[in-house]
Amino acid sequence: MIGLGIRMSNERGTDGDVDWVVQLLSDEVSVPASAEPRSWELPAEVKLLSTWTSKQLLGGHGPVRGALKAAATASAEGHWVRVHSLLHSNRDEDFEGSGTSEFVVDVFDAPIPLQELDE
Known about the structure:
Radius of gyration: 15 Å
Structural class: mainly beta
Strand content: 35-45%
Distance between the termini: 38 Å
Largest sheet: 6 strands, mixed
């Protein structure tokens, strides 16, 4: 069995609409159970406004729907948002089958970045 990690962020297109960029990873990042919920390094150039994790309940939604709701709400307020998943494990190695998945929504004190255009 292969774990699947998710990284998603919002960006503003040239037409002004907000789009979501989704990256599916071949593995879910694993961290010790005691670790901070972070599988995606925070950018140094902006301030982290808040972090929501799927361990928090959000209006009775499950972990995925809760993460999407938290992300959509912050994005609608004009914030740059990143969503990522990770696996907490009590083992130091060989995480497979021994952990719990968590979704993390990072909201930054920054406007939604403009879409980078490929030349």
